[in-house]
Amino acid sequence: MSAIKEDEEKKKEQNRFDVRHLVWSIAIRLGLGKGKVYSNDDCACYIERRFASLCVTVCGEPLSHSTLRNLTVTSNSDQIHCDIQGADGLLFHIPSQLGVEKG
Predict the structure, then answer these.
(1) Which of 34, 47, 82, 84 is most solvent-facing, going by the fewest CB within 10 Å?
(2) Which of 33, 35, 53, 55 is nearest to 44 (CA)?
(3) Dist CA 47 CA 78 (whole Å)
(4) SS3 of 34, please?
């Protein structure tokens, strides 16, 4: 399979939970939280604007803002997981690249 086809397949596998987890993982390192630079509302607005095509239900109805505010919700089909910042600072931990399975 060509690299372009693989990339297209990966994009199809991503879902709204993946987008929320990616945004959360970045925002938590940049200042997400009460009294910090970014709020869940800020992140939800970003997701709505940047990833509008993923912010719909199976029936095509837009997801509510309050649903998108829940950045850490999970699903069995997640490809991107919430990456909790550890003692190693701002580094990201990517289990699939480290050979660790989801679980």
Answers:
(1) 34
(2) 55
(3) 17
(4) coil
Every domain of the chain and the residues it spans: 12-74+85-98
As given in the structure block, the two tokens for residue 18 are 């993946």
This prediction has a pTM of 0.65
- Look-up of token digits 């029936």: 59
In tens, the pLDDT along 48-91 reads 898 888 888 888 888 898 988 988 888 888 888 888 777 777 77
Q: How far apart are CA 23 and CA 44, in angstroms?
A: 9
Q: Give the CA count within 13 Å in the CB-facing half-sphere of 57.
A: 7
Give the number of other Cβ atoms within 10 Å of residue 18's Cβ.
18
Specify the amino acid at residue 95. Answer: P
- The beta-strand segments (E) located in the chain are none
Amino acid at 43: C
